[in-house]
């Protein structure tokens, strides 16, 4: 009889069944396919059309996405730029030709966030031509000191490193050096899809002094650069709200919450432990997505975004400890490594979530996927993919 029980238990484990409650609760078993799954930062979607991959989002009733309002963020960045220009005078037109020329660092032409930021920038400057592809901008216009100026995108370029990684700061440094040589004083403005590439541009030895430059992410070094007068502005996507929401959704699901409680408790209303995220977060039911809202950062308010500020609304939880496996698409990604991961590591212990973080190279899905292993040992999963259309590669591993 004992031998039979051992055989049955072994068979259950081979079939992908794990004891629930990696923190010690062994009152039941949960198959991997039925465990909580949160995609974050890189929304499952078609890299060409941007259509949300609802097959991955409907993997089970415990699957959600946590990110930020990408379209709204693009609009915030665009307004940050035009508000800045409206307060300038004719001296911003460096060669006095009546045209504001700008260069654009594009993160990844196949990434929804990059698409949204490029669109927001071009719409604000009037250069939107219905496409986020490099080289597809039209002539626009902007008001500076009460006078209308033409706007021309001198060049937009996807910043891809020699190793194939996207959003690459070194590629931005090289591109900026080439642009400064090629366009000279035609460059009146530099815009980037993220802070890492913006800071990369500033590293170019021939960066034109005094030319305004805008980034996106509100990374610690970018905030310091704004304070020092080097970077003109950036956009905060409220990384602490995103990181906490990623963990809070998992916490709610692991605690057995269902329905609206999953995406409201601890997020827009206090949870049973008294926690509530302070920054605004919107739930988009059609995408099963929780989206943090964005805010512009410039010389007038940069001190409010200095490093080390954490959400006081999140305190120590008395929930049972649970284990979560979390993937990061690229260990070298500036935003994730300097902002998102530290936030995760700060809030996870408060929510009694034991995180195991594995990181990829930003180029090959296998660099992350091959570390998405030992799945039976975890109570839930958080996934940040290399490619946005790779959701199925991960859910397939949870079938067994």
UniProtKB/TrEMBL annotation:
SUPFAM superfamilies per the UniProt record, alphabetical: Periplasmic binding protein-like I
Source domain of life: Bacteria
Cleaved signal peptide residues: 1-20
PANTHER family: D-GALACTOSE_METHYL-GALACTOSIDE BINDING PERIPLASMIC PROTEIN MGLB, D-XYLOSE-BINDING PERIPLASMIC PROTEIN
GO MF terms, alphabetically ordered: carbohydrate binding
Keyword Transport: yes
Keywords: Signal, Sugar transport, Transport
Family: Belongs to the bacterial solute-binding protein 2 family.
Cell compartments where the protein resides: Cell envelope
Main subcellular location: other
Gene Ontology CC entries for this record: outer membrane-bounded periplasmic space
Name this protein carries in UniProt: Substrate-binding domain-containing protein
Boundaries of every Periplasmic binding protein domain copy: 33-256
Keyword NADP: no
Residue ranges of domain MglB-2 periplasmic binding protein in the record: 322-391
Organism encoding this protein: Breznakiella homolactica
